[in-house]
Design a protein that fits this description.
Blueprint: E1 12-16, H1 45-57, E2 62-66, H2 76-86, E3 91-96, H3 101-111, E4 115-119, H4 125-132, H5 137-149, E5 153-160, H6 169-178, E6 182-187, H7 203-211, E7 216-219, E8 227-232, E9 237-241, E10 254-257, E11 262-264, E12 273-274, H8 276-281, H9 284-296, H10 314-317
Parallel strand pairs: 1-2, 1-10, 2-3, 3-4, 4-5, 5-6, 6-9
Antiparallel strand pairs: 7-8, 8-9, 10-11, 11-12
Helix pairs in contact: 1-2, 2-3, 3-5
The protein binds S-adenosylmethionine (SAM) and iron/sulfur cluster.
């Protein structure tokens, strides 16, 4: 079993398959000047898989694939199939912008993927182009349809931005409900790669906005989930992720592996240790030791409490 210095059981591994992305969302990546790691400095799927096996053998029960955009990496579905073949009991999920799902949903399902979190900040073509700095709403909506047809579980992730999509919460929620998907509103988290002009909305502002069109009450959530849950009068349940309040650190069960082999103990924390050299040499004993060291140093709390803004972008760590 993997246990950190605060007695938290770590059973959830998040893997960033790549820093690359076909979008340039204003809250995540700059328009230009994105420094992408060199191919030789990345873990291959086989090297990642060797490390995933160590993690699974030591108690990891859930693996989420993210990025950058995981589906821009060739063979993402083959990587998932490797994990599924090794441990069919693992809860295998992916976070994606949805753009490539129309062509990939079936392969992902066949590979053993169970669930998808799909990012959707707006239902307007114009606003989509504005926030993602690329066209793509049509493809994302088609991707959601494809994932639904494959029977993949779907949640929608919406970053709440004042003056941008706060007038669309009702439409986004209706869209999610119509697609049998839980929507989770996410507080925009300031970071050095984002457009500094974006205006965040705190949890109370998001909830006040939703209260203008829905009656809801907070319900008990799973202790490990970062998402608070709210049940509407009509039975629909939506989520809210508010890291600024940091009430999920005490039960955090996660560790993160980036595409360049950094093992990172917390999304809002820059320090990590590299397993790249160990995995390139096939030195599994060293990789295991690095895992133990990172767990021993997993911080008690994320750094939002100290008002520190992370140097690493979400696209680098895997949001
Ligand atoms: N490309 C995929 C996607 O967009 O879903 C996966 C990677 S993305 C970094 C993972 C999640 O992080 C997305 O839901 C995205 O909306 C969220 N995210 C990125 N930057 C964020 C920020 N500054 N604040 C809050 N959420 C952010
Ligand atoms: Fe790409 Fe996802 Fe970041 Fe948007 S949030 S730029 S889709 S990695």
């Amino acid at each position: 079993m993997l246990i950190d210095a605060y007695g938290r059981v770590i059973d959830y591994l998040r893997i960033s398959l790549t820093q690359r992305c076909n979008f340039r969302c204003q809250y995540c990546m700059p328009e230009s000047g994105v420094e992408l790691g060199k191919h030789e400095n990345m873990l291959s799927h086989e090297e990642m898989f060797e490390f995933v096996k160590i993690c699974i053998d030591n108690g990891i029960k859930k693996v989420r694939i993210s990025g950058g955009e995981p589906l821009v990496r060739k063979g993402a579905e083959d990587f998932i199939a490797m994990i599924f073949a090794y441990a069919p009991h693992i809860d295998l999920a992916m976070t994606t912008n949805g753009y490539f799902l129309k062509s990939k949903a079936q392969a992902l399902k066949n590979a053993g993927l169970k669930r998808l979190n799909i990012s959707l900040d707006t239902l307007s073509n114009e606003k989509f182009r504005q926030i993602a700095r690329r066209d793509g709403l049509k493809e994302v909506l088609e991707g959601i349809e494809a994932a639904k047809s494959e029977g993949l579980g779907i949640k929608l992730n919406t970053v709440a931005i004042k003056g941008f999509n706060d007038d669309e919460f009702e439409a986004l929620m209706s869209f999610a409900a119509a697609n049998n998907a839980q929507i989770r509103f996410i507080e925009y988290m300031e970071n050095k790669h984002a457009n500094p002009e974006l205006k965040s909305m705190r949890a109370d502002e998001i909830l006040s906005k939703i209260a203008t069109f829905k009656n809801f009450k907070e319900i008990t959530k799973s202790p490990q989930s970062p998402s608070r849950l709210f049940a509407c009068d009509d039975g629909y349940i939506f989520g809210l992720i508010n890291p600024h309040q940091c009430d999920f650190c005490t039960t955090c069960n996660r560790i993160r592996l980036s595409s360049e082999g950094l093992l990172i103990p917390c999304l809002y924390f820059d320090e990590g240790k590299s397993i790249l050299a160990a995995m390139k040499k096939g030195d599994l004993a060293s990789a295991k030791q690095i895992l133990a060291d990172v767990l021993a140093n997993k911080p008690e709390k994320n750094r939002w409490q100290e008002n520190q803004i992370s140097e690493r972008g979400f696209y680098q760590t895997g949001g």
